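My current task is to audit a protein record that another person submitted. Please read both lines and tell me whether the tokens look consistent with the sequence. Do not assume that whoever made the record got everything right. I have pasted the whole thing underneath without changing anything:

===
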Amino acid sequence: MITIKRILPVAVIAALIIVPRAEGGQQAYMVQAIVGDVKIVAGGATKAAAEGLALGGGDTVVTGRNSMADIAWGDRGLVRVNEKTRISVASLARKSGDPDMEMSGGSIMVMLAKLVRGESFQVKTATQVAAVRGTSFQVSADDDSSRVDVLTGSIMVHPVRDGMIIREIAESVAEEHSVSMNRSMVRDIVAKRRKIAVALLKKGDLDALTDRFDAMRESRGFKRLNPKIRNEINERINRNRERIRDRRGAVKQRRDAPKPDRGQRPPRPGR
């Protein structure tokens, strides 16, 4: 069962990094900050991660307990790899439509500015792939199931069965919504062409998700992003926070409003 993980209350120190593009025009991945036990698996060898390290195609990031890494995706945004997570970046030989990251277990948080025409960012798990063009969202996964929580923007999800992305089945997930799928659900969705169920985030889950992204926005890694990109992400999250506050205020006002006395009949007109 997937649960929303708590982000570690740690101070992250990052250096100013100019992030280039990888070969072939793909966005490059650059380690901006690490805390604790973070390793990079590349070409069959394992080494300790280091700030400023560029990730190559097919490299895998592995975080230990009470550990995390912030990774810049080109100049478009930031990916936070939470504790006990294993995630691989795409091969430089990836085809159009292939996922940018593939996660076998753990959780990540992604903050992206709006992407330009022709760009997309996709995260694949054992049971679903999330495709975005500018949003803030979290993905949690293990070998049997996965969950995607969207804070701002929207994403498109497709089921994944036996490693294959089923593109003909798709569902849009709007901000403040969530989608969860396990292997059994995917088999049923694919066999019977069922609709993917999307749920509104519960108040507690939404508040916790917002707090996590607020903490991420305070990190040095985020503050080192391109100011224009950083401002765009901040504005989107702040607008969403204001909408939530206004909506909850209106609900409270209606709830606290005096209730009419249903036992007393209103006077007739003219009396």
